[in-house]
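Minutes, methods subgroup
Present: GH (chair), OT, SY

1. OT presented the first of two proteins processed in the latest run. Sequence and structure tokens recorded below as shown on screen.
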Amino acid sequence: MRNRTELVVVQRMLALRKANVLPLTPGITQRATILMEALALSHGLQAADALIAATALEHGLAILTGNSKHFEVIAALAVERFEP
């Protein structure tokens, strides 16, 4: 989030969607590592985004993001754009 207003919007959105906290597993870590090896240098994929994407892929979930460019390069990842 870039400012407090965006933080409040995201907090409200998460409350409405009843977000679940998913644990980091060895499978997620391995998948994130593979994503980093494939996309860090060519597309600037950072560790946090790789872990988020790997978690979504492992659980068959979509990513809800305000910045889809971080994730659109990842094949098979469903991305939903969030507009505050």
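2. SY then presented the second protein from the same run.
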Amino acid sequence: MSVSIFSGHICNIYFMRLLYLSLIALAITTTALASPQSEAAQQLFHDRKDAEAKVAFGELAKREARNADAQFYLGRLAMRAKEFDAAVTHFEKAISLDGNRAAYHLELAGAYGAKVGSAGLLGKASLASKSRKALENAVALEPNNVDARSGLVQFYSQAPSMMGGGMDKAHAQADVILQLNPARGRTTKAALFAREKKYDEAFALFAIVLQEAPDDYNALYQTGRLAAESGVNLDVGLAALQRCLAMEPPAGAPGHAAAHWRVGNIHEKLGDKSAARAAYEASLARDAKFAQAIASLKKLN
């Protein structure tokens, strides 16, 4: 797989991960809104009454022109509605009013990323640069912000050096994450090793994570994914994915459709086409539109 940030596929993978990071981080972010109107609007947001919340925050923004939190929540509502241009406008406005909130910069990075699918070649490069700067701003404001550093790992590991990328920079960020959150740092380092095809190092780190937390769904899934993609430790990967299928996927993690698909990948590598076909069909039973399983099943047939 090409590592060029100008590749549409690579861009989409990077920005999907980045968007996931920003949304997961901000899903647990709360803002101290003083007025009863603000508190009511925030409650509507958390209750996912988006239409009412948009009206409430819009009225608040009109009454209080310098209310950065109102712009921030309007941006989050726009992200939910997939109105990415509007989201960028609101997040940039929030930062212009209060540039000292790492959460604002992290969400702005995700908003830039969400726009990449509709951008042209030069647009992708511009969005990547803006996304990197937003992540770096978040880290500068909150050096212990693991989500922002994880976003930088994704950027640095996939962007070419001419755009500020580099595996050395990615590993440097991962090393900091390792100090801040050992379990997450090991998973991050393992993913980098996998990208470099250093499979033994990657499997070893995932094994440490699972030794400490045997039910870590993400580590289990990534172990299976690594086996499926590398062709190494197939039995270990298959067992990990089967454990995933016995668990409830956490928010934002690859679901059971993805896990079944990876099981099929491993069975293909083991030469068991019948088991692979059954796994792909199980994937599609979970998600009839799961493109990877559709393609794999078509190729298998």
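Chair's summary of item 2: Confidence is low (pLDDT under 50) at residues 1-13, 23-33.
Next meeting: continue with the remaining queue.
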